[in-house]
Amino acid sequence: MIGAREAREVAFLNPLRSMINRASAQHLHALVVPGPEVALAAGLDLRAAGLTLAAGPRQANVLLLLTPLSDKMLAAASVAYAQMPRPRMVLVLGDGSYAPLPKADATAPLTPEGLKQAVGTLRQIMSTQGFAAKVEDFDAPSLQSRIEYTCPMHPEIVQDEPGSCPKCGMFLVPKETSATPETHDHAAMATPEPAHEADGAADKTAKYTCPMHPEVTSDTPGNCPKCGMNLVKPEEATNHSHHHASHAPSEDAATYVCPMHPEVTSHEPGSCPKCGMFLEEVKDASSEGHHDHAEQASAAKYTCPMHPEVVNDEAGSCPKCGMFLEEVKEAGGEGHHGHDHTGHASGDTPAKYTCPMHPEVTSDAPGNCPKCGMNLIEAAEEHEDGPHDHATMAAHAPSASVSSEESPHAAHGSSAKYTCPMHPEVTSDAPGNCPKCGMNLVKAEHAESGHAGGHDHGGGSTLLDGLNGLEPGFMSMIEMTDGTPRSSNGLQMEWITTPFGPFFPGLPGGLTLELELDGDTVVSAKTGSLTGPQDLLQNGPRAAAEYAAALGAQMPLATVAYQLLACRAIESAAKVTPSADIKIARSAALARERITSHLLWLSQLGRQLGLKGIEREAATLHLLVHAAAPEAITALGPRLNKLAAKARRTWFLSRRLATVGTLPPEAVWDGPTSADTTAAGRLAARLAEISSSLSEVAKATSLTPPTLADIGNATGTGHASVQTARGLASLQVELRKGAVVSATLETPSSRHVSLVNPLIEQQELADALVAIASLDLSPWELPA
Amino acid sequence: MSEWLLILALFIGVYGVAVLESWASGNRLRLLGPVVSALALLGQESVLHRKNDRLFFETAPILLLTAALLSLAIIPLAPGLIVTDLATGALFFNAALAYVLVALIMAGWGPDGAYGMIGGWRFLGQLIAFAMLVVMPITAVAMRAESLSTVTIVESQAQLWNIAYQPLGFVLFAIAGMAMAFVPPFDLPNAEGELAGGVEAEYTGVRRMVFRLGRMVLILSVASAATVFYLGGWLGPWLPAWAWSAVKILAVTALMLAGGRMFPRIREGTLLAWAWKLGIPLALVNIFLVGVLVLVVPI
After folding, report:
1. What residues of B are in contact with residue A522 (Cβ under 8 Å)?
2. Contact (CB<8Å) A766/B115
3. pLDDT of A553-590, one tens digit each?
C-alpha cells in the first residue's frame, strides 16, 4: 500500500493498530475524479459499494479515478491526492492511464461489479496495511514549488533572492509559489491588483517638480515649498522610482509611471490608481540621470534622500532605492527628506537613530532595525531646540492647526509640536512617548495655508509625509488601501481569489470556478474546464460510424445526445433519411437521457443545498432509469413524479432559488426554459421536462443507443442540431467517401458559460453557487 | 456516585447523538458507526498546514468541546443529578455557548484557507443574532419560574410544561438553538455544498475527531436545554426521572436533526433577517405574553 502511515514497530500497539485498520477499512470516504455525477452516469452506485462521498480531499481516504482522464484533470487529481491524509489509497476504474499518480492500490473495469470487487480489495489492503514501517513520499510535478521573496507590505515586490524591500526597507519574507500553474483545492490569500483606469493628465510642461508633490512645479530648480526636497525634472523623478523596479512589470510600451508605485504603468498620462499621484513620463528607465547637483564640486559627498546610511563620494544612484544621491554640504550624513540641508546641524549632538516601528531600538549609526529590517531614522529631533527650516505637511489634528493658517513661517519655532506617528490626535509641546502606543513622539510642523487644496495624496499619507523623520515609504493603512478596488456596498475588504473546483461538492467535477470574493460577496468569476472536447480528427479523417461513437464517448454526461447529433449530421451530409421507427427509438433514447441528466442535476443541487433526501433519491432513480427499457421507465413514472413533487414542495427551496440566477433580458439561453427566468424557473422547467420526457419514452418499444444508418461512400456536407438536456448542440460535418474529414461542434455550455458573470456579480457566495449550478454547465462541453 | 452517573450519561448521550446524526445525514442507522469513525480518525494522519496559525488551529477543537461541555454543567437530568445548580444557570448556558463562536472563528482562521475563513465569519453573524434569540425566550422561562436556576425551572413546569405555556418561546428557542449548534439547515459555517466543509474543511485525524466530538456535545447540550426549559426536564409519569430526561433529550435531538434535513440551507442574509427583523420582535412579544400570563394564570 503506497499511502500507508509510517509507524515504528511497537509490540503493545499492534492490537490497537489492527483495530484502527479494520475500522478504517469500514470508513472509506472517496474523492471521485472527475466527479460523482460521472460515476452515476456510468451506472456506479458508490453508496451501495460502501464508499461515502467526501466533501474534499482532506476528508477522503480513497481517490477514485474514473479513467480515461485528461492530463489537466490528472494533474489536479495528484494535488488532491497529496492533500489527502494518510492512510490513503488510489482506486482506478477503467483502463486509462493515470500518470503522475502513484501505482493504484486496486484497478477494475468501469462497471458496478468491478467497483464492488475493487472496494473489497481496498478493504482488505486497508485492514492489514494501514500502518507501514517505511512509507514513500508522493511527489508530482504539479506539486513542485519554489520560494520567492516578497515584502509583507508591498506584495508587488517579488524577487528570487532574499533582501529588503526597495520601498520600505523591510526584510522580504519567503513565499511559496507553484513552479507550474495548478489548481489547489484550498486557496491561499491573494492580493488583487487594482484595475482602475487612469484619468487626468500629467503636467508635462513644467520643468522641475517635487518627487513627492507633483503639483508643485517650477521653471527653475529649487526646493519644494511643501517638503523642502529638491525639485527634480519630471523624467528624473520617474527614474528615481523606476530604476529600482527592474523586476516590476515594466513593459517597453509603457510610457507613464507613478513615482511612488513603479508597478503602475500606463500608456497614457493620468493619475496613479493607488495613490492618485500624477503619472510621470518615462524616457528611459536605465538612462543615467542628470541631477542638477551632479555638476557641483566633486569633493562633495552624496547621500540618498531616503537612505541616510548611503553615503558616496560620487554622484550616482542609491543602491537601495535607485534614487539619485544628493549632495551633502556638511558632514554628518543626515539626510531626511524635507530638511533644508543648510539648517540642520547634527555635528553638535551625536545623532541617534531609531526604528519608526520599534522605538526601543536605538543606534548611534544609521542602519536597519534588527527586528523588522526597516531603515533606522534619526531621532535627534527630540534633543534639538532650534527651529527646523523645513516646511512639511502638518498633522491634521484640529488643535494643532490654528496658528499656521495665516503664514507658513509662523509655524516655525514657536508652534512646533510633537505628535505620535500613529495617533495624530496626540500632540505635545515637549518630546516624549505617545500615551497610547508608547512610540516616540516625532516633531510635526504646520503646513502653509495652501496645503489643503490641490494635492492628490490621501489624507493619511500627507499626514505621514509631513511627519519629520518618517520615510516617505512608511506604510500607512490608508495609503495601502487607497485605490484598491471597493465594492458597491462601500465596505473596504481584502479581496481574495478562491478556487471552487475542480472537485468541489455541489458543482460538476472538472469545472474550475475561480471566484473573486469581497468578503463573501462575489465580484467576478473565471469559469473553465479541465476536460473538454478534443479534436477527434487530429489524426486525419475518421470513418463516420467511428466518429459518431467517439463523439458520444467524449461526453460522458450526454453520450446519447452527441451520438445522435453526429448521426444526424452525417446522415444529412450523406442525404440518407432514417426510417420512422428509428426516429422514434432515437427520440425516446434522447428523452431517457434527458430524464437522467436532469436527475443528475437535481442530485447535485440537493448536495449543494444540503437536501440529502433529494440528493439520494435522484441518484437512486438515475441508476434505475439510465439503462432501463421503456416499460421499466414507465413503471418508475410515479416515483419520478413523486420526486419532482417533493422538489416542488420542499419548503423554502423555490423561494431561495427565486431570487438568484435571473437571466438578463438579452441573454441567449436555450436550455430548459419557463416563463420564470430565475433559478427557480429553471428548476421547474427541468422537473416539467422529466414528466414530459416520460411520455415520450413510453411511445417507444425499445431503447437503443443511436446507430448510424448505412451511408456507403457518401460525400457531402451536413448540419444537424439536437436539443440536449443542457440546450441546443449543433454539428457541421464534411464527409468524403464515407469518412468525416472536418467537423465543427457547438455546445450549449460553451454558450451559456458567458452567463456566469452577469448572474453572480455582487451576489452572496451561496447564491452565486446556486446560480451557477442552475445553468447546468458541463465541463465536458467547455473548451479545456 | 452522581459524578460517575453524570459522566456515564454524557457518554451515552454523545454516543446517541452521534448515531442519530449519521442516521439523519446518511439515512442508515448504524449503531457501531461512531466507534468505527472514531477509530478511523484516530488512525488518520493529522495534517498540520504549513501556513497555519498553530495556536488557533490547535485550540479551536478543544475550545469547542470545552464550551459545549461547560454548557452541559447546568442541565439537571434528575433531582440531584446535576453538575452544578448555579443560581444563574439559565444565563450560564448562553454564556458558555458564546465561546462556540470563538472556537469556530479560530478554526476558520487557523489553517489559512478561504473556505474555513468564510465559514468562520459567517458564523460570527449567525451566532450574534441567535444568541439573542436564545437568551430572550429563556428570560420568559425564568419569569415563570421566578428563578434562573435550572432545577427550579424544571420544578416550575410541574403543572404545565412550558411548551404549552409559552409555545412561541419554544419555537424561537428551538430555531435559535439549532442555529447555535449549526445543524442543518443552519450549517452555514461547515456547509459541504457551499464551502466544502468550511471550518471543518482542513481538519483531519485526531483534531477532526475532537472537533466532531465537540459538535456532538453541542447538539446534545442544545437538545438538553430545550428539554429542561420547555419539556419539563425529568418530569413525567411511570418512568424514573433520569429515563424521562434521556427519552426527551434523544427525541428532541432526533427531531432537530431529521427535521432540519427537510429544508435547504438557509441563505446567510435571510437567516440574519429572520433573527433581527422577525425573531427579536417575536421574542419580545413572547416575554410580554408570558408576563401577562404569569400575572393572570400563575401556574
Report:
1. none
2. no
3. 888 888 899 999 988 888 888 888 888 888 888 888 88
Q: What's the CA gap between A712 and A739, in Å, rounded?
A: 10
Nearest to A34 by CA among A529, A429, A415: A529
- Where b means 16+ CB within 10 Å and e means fewer, A27-54 reads bbbbbbbbbbbbbbbbebbbbebbbbbb
Residue carrying C-alpha cell 560620487: A314
Nearest CA in chain A to B44: A86
pLDDT band per the 50, 70, 90 thresholds, residue A434? confident
Residues of B in contact with A517 (CB under 8 A): 114, 118
Q: Looking at beta carbons, which residues of chain A come within 8 Å of B114?
A: 186-187, 189, 496, 498, 517
pLDDT at A188: 33
pLDDT in the model for residue A759: 87
Q: For A297, phi and psi rounded to 5 degrees?
A: -55, 140
CA A230-A233-A238 angle, to 5 degrees, is 100
Interface check B263 vs A, CB under 8 A: yes
Cα Dmax for chain A: 108
Calculate how close chain A gets to B170, using CA atoms only, in Å: 21
Distance CA B82, CA B93 (A): 13
pTM: 0.70
A377-378 and A353-354 as β-strands: parallel, antiparallel, unpaired?
A: antiparallel
Beta bridge partners of A728: A723
Name the nearest CA neighbour of A87 among A26, A19, A14, A4: A4
Mutate: best of B21, B37, B44, partner A, most A CBs <10 A: B44
Q: What's the gap in Å between the CA of B283 and the closest CA on chain A?
A: 23
Please, what is the average pLDDT of chain A? 72
What pLDDT was estimated at residue A318?
A: 66
For position A130, what pLDDT does the model report?
81
pLDDT digits (tens, 9 = 90+) for A711-720: 778 888 889 9
Would you call B201 and A58 a contact, using CB atoms and an 8 Å cutoff? yes
> Pick from A185, A4, A26, A30: which is nearest to A92 by CA?
A30
The answer to whether the CB atoms of A24 and B45 lie below 8 A apart is no
Is B187 near chain A, with CB under 8 Å? yes
Cβ contacts of A466 within 8 Å, gap of 6 or more? A227, A338, A392, A393, A394, A395, A444, A445, A447
The residue count of chain B comes to: 299
Q: How far is CA A321 from CA A262, A303, A386, in A?
A: 11, 12, 31
pLDDT at residue A226 in the model: 59
3-state secondary structure of A191: coil
**Residues of B with Cβ-Cβ distance to A769 under 8 angstroms:** 193-194
Question: Measured between CB atoms, does B66 come within 8 Å of chain A?
Answer: no
3-class secondary structure, A562? helix
The answer to whether the beta carbons of residues A44 and A53 sit under 8 Å apart is no
Non-local (6+) Cβ contacts of A79 within 8 A are A140, A142, A143, A182, A183, A184, A185
CB contact under 8 A, A27 and B37: yes
* Closest approach of B46 to chain A, Cα-based (Å): 7
- Burial (Cβ within 10 Å: 0-12, 13-18, ≥19) of residue A161: exposed
pLDDT in tens, chain B (299 residues): 788 888 898 999 999 999 998 888 888 888 888 999 999 998 888 888 777 788 888 899 999 999 999 999 999 988 888 888 888 889 999 899 889 989 999 998 888 888 888 888 889 989 989 988 999 999 999 999 989 999 999 999 888 899 998 999 999 999 999 999 999 889 889 888 888 888 888 888 899 999 999 999 999 999 999 999 999 888 888 888 889 999 999 999 999 998 888 899 988 888 999 999 999 999 999 999 999 988 887 77
| Burial (CB count within 10 angstroms: exposed 0-12, middle 13-18, buried 19+), residue A315 | buried
